[in-house]
Amino acid sequence: MKDALRRQHIETPSWAYGNSGTRFKVFAQQGVPRTPQEKIDDAAQVHRFTGVAPSVALHIPWDRVDDYAALAAHAKDQGVAIGAINSNVFQDDDYMLGSVTNPDPAVRRKALDHLLECVDIMDQTGSRDLKLWFSDGTNYPGQDDIRARQDRLAEALAAVYDRLGDDQRFLLEYKLFEPAFYTTDVPDWGTSYAHCVKLGDKAKVCVDTGHHAPGTNIEFIVAFLLREDKLGAFDFNSRFYADDDLMVGAADPFQLFRIMYEVVRGGGYEPEAGVAFMLDQCHNIEPKIQGQIRSVMNVQEATAKALLVDRDALHAAQDAGDVLGANAVFMDAYNTDVRPLLAEVREDMGLDPDPIAAYKASGYYEKVVAERKDGQAAGWGA
Ligand code: PSV
Ligand code: MN
Questions:
Q1: Which residue's CA is the nearest one to ligand 1's atom 11?
Q2: Which of 17, 86, 118 to mutate to test the pocket of ligand 1 (most atoms within 8 A of CB)?
Q3: pTM for this model (two decimals)
Q4: C-alpha 333 to ligand 1 mean position (Å)
Q5: Separation of CA 347 and ligand 2 centre (Å)
Q6: Is the CB of 280 under 6 A from ligand 1?
């Protein structure tokens, strides 16, 4: 178990380190990075204190630079690597009626060119994964042809797929609604799955835990996709209402445990499965680096509990039809306090057993507050 926990890999998102907010207000925090390089520096702190966050995802154009190979070299110097490249076809006026599903072929071409540019960037950063999320959809019945939009989506996805290198993949992320409020072109895992199946092995589904209707059984989706070898990645976060982007494990740690159990059960924790465990969160009111450290620790705790499930006892109870016995085995693992075990794992790795306290004592926050006083803090704007 300790071995498995030591080799955990959780990817943090560059945008978590910049200022963020809701459509009502973006609160500025002190010491926030001004450049992609500084976001990577902050991500490196999360890895330094947890030991299990060795890569950082980029978002284009938020992390646009002239030289991506140099950015990858900068990351390497900081002890981390560049992970997934996230495309962005949702923040340009041209995309008001959609990007790759827009009725206007010129807008569709522009969106596709951006996606292809992201693959060029992957070639330079050495990234394996391109994450695709489309805000495309409609707000009013009759606004556009629902089926034609699927055809346009399929055409764009096929073009991106054909551009991928042998070791590259795309991850198609779904989201029930927002910003589109009537139809969304990739609203659920089934839509994503169907497009990915048609294209082949390099197309996988990304499950963002905040992108479902309330009450959706996410662990079922995870079990199903793993069985079909179509689970490519997680965007972890938690939600009370909609796409809240709160810290993973904050709203419902039991759900996170249930998800991680299906991951372990389905072989998704093994590196060969190729499942990327990424965070996709915003820290609007809490300190950002600490928020990321806390989130990484929450995933570690859920993983440790999932690994603790006595699967032999569970299967025996399941086979015997022992409903209460099976449930008790499952709950025993969930109710175990794994924090002392994780403290030991950190000590084995030469880390402080308390990553948050160690980060606070490091003086990094005070240093960046002083260093980053001037200039424009990074943020995605709202
Ligand atoms: C969309 O809500 C999303 O989950 C996608 O992953 C985007 O890339 C990300 O959030 C931007 O914050
Ligand atoms: Mn996401």
A1: 280
A2: 86
A3: 0.98
A4: 32
A5: 32
A6: yes
36 neighbors 78 (Cβ within 8 angstroms): no
- From the list 17, 70, 6, 105, the residue with the least C-alpha distance to 372 is 17
What's the CATH code, domain 2-371?
Answer: 3.20.20.150
Tokens at 365, concatenated:
């926050």
Report which of 48, 38, 47, 33 is spatially closest to residue 74, judged by C-alpha positions. Answer: 38
Instruction: Give 301 Cα–ligand 2 centroid separation in angstroms.
Output: 22
Token digits for 165?
């290198």
Residue carrying structure tokens 């996805």: 157
Of ligand 1's listed atoms, the one at least distance from the Cα of 210 is 4
How far apart are the CA of 131 and the centre of ligand 1, in A?
A: 9
Please, what's the largest Cα pairwise distance for the chain? 66
Ligand 1 pocket, 234 CB below 6 A?
Answer: no
> pLDDT tens string for the chain (382 positions)?
999 999 999 999 999 999 999 999 999 999 999 999 999 999 999 999 999 999 999 999 999 999 999 999 999 999 999 999 999 999 999 999 999 999 999 999 999 999 999 999 999 999 999 999 999 999 999 999 999 999 999 999 999 999 999 999 999 999 999 999 999 999 999 999 999 999 999 999 999 999 999 999 999 999 999 999 999 999 999 999 999 999 999 999 999 999 999 999 999 999 999 999 999 999 999 999 999 999 999 999 999 999 999 999 999 999 999 999 999 999 999 999 999 999 999 999 999 999 999 999 999 999 999 999 999 999 875 4
Tokens of 324: 């209460």
